[in-house]
Amino acid sequence: MGDPRFKATERSLNAIETIDRWIKSISDQLSHFIDFDFGAESAMIANNRDWMSCMDIMSFLHDIGKHFSVNAMINKESVRQRIELPDQGISSYRVFLQFTAVLRFCRA
Hints:
The chain is mainly α. Helix content is 52%, strand content 0%.
């Protein structure tokens, strides 16, 4: 889970329109190999927004976030390297993404 490349900076946040274009592009490419129109047996592409848009932040933190330790995340080498850089750090967004990655894995 997460980005194992030990980048020194956070990824940029992209506009929803950009993400939607990427999803369509990926779907178009995969449709040559995977059937997305096969009834109950169809393949499906989902992004975090598809299955998390109905969950508000407080419910998410109450129901999901309480099960994960920020200490465990901080102990990861990639996170520790970022925290130790004087001009960098870890945003709340990055912490939240750790939780969604685990939840996404559990739902798969």
